[in-house]
Amino acid sequence: MDFKFNEAEQQFRDEIQSFLKSQLPADWADRAFLGEVPAEEQEELAKKLTAALADKKWLAMAWPEEHGGLDAGHVQQMLYKEETAYAEMPSGSTMGVDWVGPAVMLFGNDEQKAKYLPNIVNGIDQWCTLYSEPGAGSDLASLQTRAVRDGDEYVINGSKIWTSGGHFSNMGWLAARTDPDAPKHRGISTFVLEMDTPGIEVRPLVNMADEHNFNEVFFEDVRIPATNLVGVENRGWYQVATALDYERSGVAAYAGGKRNLERLVGAAKQDETLLKQNPNARYELADRFVELQVGYNVAYRIPFLQAQGQIPNHEASVSKLYGSELTQRIARTGIQMLGMGGQILPGSPHSKLGGAIARTYLTSVSSTVAAGTSEVQRNIIAQRGLGLPRG
Question: Does the pTM exceed 0.70?
Answer without folding.
Answer: yes
